[in-house]
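A quick word before the example. In earlier lectures we treated sequence and structure as two separate objects. From today on, think of them as two lines of the same record. Here is Putative septation protein SpoVG written that way.
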Amino acid sequence: MQITDVRVRRIEKEGKMKAIVSITLDNEFVIHDIKVIEGEKGLFIAMPSRKAADGEYRDIAHPINSDTRDMIQKVILDKYETTALEMPEVEAFA
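And the structure line, produced from the sequence above:
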């Protein structure tokens, strides 16, 4: 399985969520709404989820093993960092 496209939509408001990402697998299958989140130990991804009847959130789509999760997270965070470098600096106004 190859990630053939990564699209990052940065979130500019304050908070822990930094971006919403869509990935394409093998030019055939898309997963939307993967979140890039700033945690205590740095950035990580959260797979798309839905609130269940019991109030808990459950992933809608997710990797089966940790190696696949690590690979997806690395590709997404690399692209996120690249888009951060491409963005123009925002000047603060007094």
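Notice the following. Residues 89-94 have pLDDT under 50 and may be disordered. We will return to this example when we discuss secondary structure assignment.
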